[in-house]
Fold this protein.
Amino acid sequence: MAALDAFRSETRAWLEANCPPAMRTLMPEEEQVAGGKKATWARPEQKQWLERMAAKGWTAPTWPRQYGGGGLSPEEALVLEEEMQSLGCRPPLRGMGLTMLGPVLLEYGTEEQRRAHLPRIVTGEIRWCQGYSEPEAGSDLASLRTRAVLQGDHFLVNGHKIWTSNAHLSDWIFCLVRTDPAAKKHEGISFLLIDMDDPGVRPRPIRLISGKSVFCETFLENVRVPKENLVGQLNKGWTIAKRLLEHERKGIGGIGARAQARFETPMQDVAKHYVGEVDGRIADPALRAQVAGWQMKNHAFQLTRRRAAEAAEAGAPPGPLSAMFKYYATELNKDRYEALLAAEGVQGLGWEGEGFTDDELRITREWLRSKANSIEGGTSEIQLNIIAKRVLALPD
Amino acid sequence: MPMILSEEAQMVRETALEFFRERSPITALRKLRDDNDATGFSRALWQQMAELGWTGFLVSEDHGGSGFGVAGLAQVMEAAGRTLAASPLLSTALLGASLLDLGGSADQKDEYLPPLVAGEAILALALEEAAHHAPTRIATTARRDGAGWVLDGRKVFVLDGHVADHLIVAARTGGGADERAGITLFLVPGDAPGVTRSRTIMVDSRNAAIVTLTGVAVGPDAVLGPVDGGADLLDRVLDRARAGLAAEMLGSAEEAFERTVQYLKDRKQFGVAIGSFQALKHRAAQMFCEVEITRSAVMAATAALDENANDAALLASLAKAKASETLYLCGNEGVQMHGGIGMTDEHEIGFFMKRARVAQATFGDAAFHRDRYAALSGY
């Protein structure tokens, strides 16, 4: 305990000395740093903050030091997160390399693969995207058809991926490919790392209901992938795919619990602003009930996350809760924006231009973005299927 | 505020689960109902519960208890909820013990707590006066008469009121209709002259009574806690009751849920188990989530109450609201998913739905606690 307290005070002092003041402000979505060769910087402090954190390995706090990580214990990493939160520090780097591919390479990658890719994820040099879904393989992911044929020292890959988030801004893509079309659908899939510099890789952004284009479709045409970029064994990629999805769902399930929470205007204050107060209470009792209902659901959910974390620390086997977290957190996040829109009235319905504050316009777009939460990374319906099957053991 | 059970609490939990499963399954409640049992619970069972120490969990060691705490008692209540066991756990081991332990004078503790811990005395809180939980809306009056007091009023939904040896009556000694100030608690013998009690037969087959007080004279030593200042003590104790009842409801919800999932596996239609149908799977999975969410709220609330944490009241409201919603869900879905057999009295699933409704209404339903949560949070 004393060691952890010492770590906490050292960490706080370091953050105070090294986190630029501009990186202790509310982060607009467009100022998220995801790195990569195509990275753009809205302000120089973003780059400075990333470099300082990456030098300590604190962009990937729990990864081993030999791969550029911070080498922190889970308890120390939690302290770092808490201190960043209390100082309002922005996350220096985000992305699928950190939250999804990295953990999978640590578990399934070869030593060469770890050394080649992990340090470049930690520093933000390489940005990764995810080649999972296909036009005909959404919830039924294992029916994917992108083909990879082993030809001597390389695979030749042909196919069509979709919902590849930020593919147009990424450098590498981790892909599920079919390597044995004759096998049962879960048994002929492999997990490949593909350099998007290959001219056969062509991402195309898709305009979404929010007016933004974070998702792409990505065409793969005669792409040559060196054999050593296969992760795990040939045709055994489904296990790795599922493990990565667990990491993805954990990330999506973490919505609402991230750092920077202190900059969010509490929902009740938004409600008071738009409908007024009577004796210090939200004037409209129906809206008050909606706000309190949401806050209570969120409160109980955050307690559940803590309970799962404490059980894990105490050495209990990982519970069946991860599928629940993804489902619950994303539904909760959607409800949050519905309540905010209800509070804002027509002020929450502007698309652009005059008559609306930046916050109002931001919330409208985030409301639309939130609708993807319960679709991406496995729909809510798929999560409920997983709970029914794995936790409740209901028959197929 | 720990979110995992201590070793001691885990032991209590296991003992309690086995105890109720073996000695008070739902058939026991059914028998009490069908026999029109005048007491409404088994005194022999209550005696055994006292011997296990459960009546003393909220009583300090000076008065024969263990002071083990709300989180410990919640384990027992959750286990009781599993089998819908009828007992004075809430009225006596929780409410009565807490009111005396936290608010009683030294003499009152000496007089009332040892028999309570021994399982010999039943207590009942006479609080509500109308259809909805309203802890400060009290019209029952107590006026000074010499050194003592005279009480007049009518109380409803008094849990175990018809068999209680002592009533703890909330009466108005000052203040206006719905004011916090001016509420005083009185210890009144159940058979005092002027007290009439009639049992109300509730849909869940558990105990409640209407208590009428007509010119009931008590001495000065009947006052429990401060004169005119009973609302604070009441709040603190009611929050314990809300969290404890939420634990009981969690047990009932989980049991109804597990029985329903088992039925989905056993029942065949169209040549397959109905649990293979996605329409039912998804609803079962949603129930699972709500049970887990409720468990977290209950654990946090009971731990916070034991620590006297600042957010204990907020968490008690959270726990009671979540437990109310979740037991309502599991009770109703339980009956629906059992189909026709779920509508029969012979099947036990209906008992859970009936209990859900009464437990929801006890000490504030989800709407009450949503509003209270908002008020406590400054909106």
Summary: The domain at 231-376 of chain B is CATH 1.20.140.10 (Butyryl-CoA Dehydrogenase, subunit A; domain 3). Chain B has three domains: 7-121, 125-228, 231-376. DSSP finds eleven helices and ten strands in chain B. Chain B has a mean pLDDT of 97.
